[in-house]
Amino acid sequence: MEAADRRRSRRRAGIPGTVTGQVALVTGGARKLGASICRHLAGRGYRVVINYRTSRARAESLAKAIRAGGGQAVTCRADVTRERDVRRMVDRVKRSFGRLDVLINNVGDYLEKPLARVSPAEWEAIVRSNLTSVFLCTREVLPLMRERRQGRIVMIGYAPAGRIAASPRCAVYHLAKTGALILAKSMAVEEAPHGITVNMVSPGTLFNSVKKPSRTASDYIPAGRFCRYGDLLGMLDYLLSESASYVTGGHFVVSGGYAV
Ligand SMILES: NC(=O)c1ccc[n+]([C@@H]2O[C@H](COP(=O)([O-])OP(=O)(O)OC[C@H]3O[C@@H](n4cnc5c(N)ncnc54)[C@H](OP(=O)(O)O)[C@@H]3O)[C@@H](O)[C@H]2O)c1
Questions:
Q1: Which of 53, 127, 136 is the pocket-test mutation for ligand 1 (most atoms within 8 Å of CB)?
Q2: CA distance linking residue 123 with residue 17, whole number of Å
Q3: Catalytic site includes residue 52
Q4: DSSP conformation letters of 18-63
Q5: In angstroms, how far is the first alpha carbon of the chain from the final one?
Q6: How far is residue 89's CA from residue 107's CA, in Å, rounded to a whole number?
Q7: Closest CA to 108 of 126, 90, 120
Q8: Which element (helix H / strand E) includes 159?
Q9: What is d(CA 245, CA 233) in angstroms, rounded to the nearest whole number?
């Protein structure tokens, strides 16, 4: 570490909630919410692994910006729906850092279509993106976390995920996120004896969502606005903090009152 980096690290060490030496892996971390989480965690002192699938240039430039700000970040290409890629990614984390403290399962493609028009390929892709990827990544990191008897796993969900209800035009996405919630709760119970917590943080509609409904925010969100990244980052801080070591299997809806 260069002298300037050490100075920045020391300065960061004075920020409440700052950690040193811990490693966080963020899936789909090159853009949008994932990138915001990477920047935020790096600012908190985590060594961040930015996973990407196709956005290599974006991932590299984010890592560069984090390093320029005195943080630590590396990039790692992997399609998290593929077991072999996931295994390679986690192997790389193990070889580079020898530990993993935090996994943020952020990948989860969206599909809006009535079921009658959903093709089997689309069905498969959405389930793989929102559910299989979460299973593969979470399962693969457990041995690393169990070794140190500590780990925090957070799934990025979707506000209605906890509801068993009709989801017209959104059923495949909804059922995959609900599956991920059941997975999170089950993993939470299975991994609690190993010091690992598993929770889901669920936004409503993000301010920059490509599929924003035609309605304005105030038509269906009691708080009257779309979800900002900052609304979610505070919840993440809490779940990664020492104060939340006893909080596991939770579903934290951050939606301004939508779908609660
Ligand atoms: N947008 C919303 O309004 C909203 C609402 C509720 C919940 N959410 C959830 O919030 C999370 C983030 O959503 P977002 O809208 O910020 O981002 P997004 O548009 O869903 O995509 C974020 C990143 O996911 C990566 N990705 C997709 N499939 C991948 C795969 N198989 N392997 C590795 N990376 C993959 C992409 O990487 P590359 O660019 O490298 O290909 C992309 O940069 C998702 O779980 C989403 O379901 C979003």
A1: 53
A2: 40
A3: no
A4: --SS-EEEETT-SSHHHHHHHHHHHHTT-EEEEEESS-HHHHHHHH
A5: 46
A6: 15
A7: 126
A8: none
A9: 17
Residue position matching structure tokens 């779940």:
239
Is the pTM value of this prediction over 0.85? Answer: yes
Per-residue pLDDT of the chain in tens (260 residues, 90 and over written 9): 444 544 455 445 445 567 879 999 999 999 999 999 999 999 999 999 999 999 999 999 999 999 999 999 999 999 999 999 999 999 999 999 999 999 999 999 999 999 999 999 999 999 999 999 999 999 999 999 999 999 999 999 999 999 999 999 999 999 999 999 999 999 999 999 999 999 999 999 999 886 655 678 988 999 999 999 999 999 999 999 999 999 999 999 999 999 99
DSSP 8-state class, residue 255 = S
Which one of 110, 111, 137, 220 would you pick to mutate in the ligand 1 pocket, going by the greatest count of ligand atoms within 8 A of its CB?
110
Give the DSSP per-residue string, 4-24: HHHHHHHHHTTSTT--SS-EE
Homologous superfamily, domain 3-254: NAD(P)-binding Rossmann-like Domain (3.40.50.720)
Pocket of ligand 1 (CB under 6 A): 27-28, 30-34, 51-55, 79-81, 106-110, 129, 133, 156, 158, 203, 205-206, 209
- Which amino acid, 161? A
Sorted by sequence, the CB contacts under 8 Å of residue 259 that are 6+ apart come out as: 159, 160, 163, 204, 253
Neighbours of 37 (CB within 10 A): 26
Atom of ligand 1 minimally distant from the CA of 156: 45
Domain positions in the chain are: 3-254
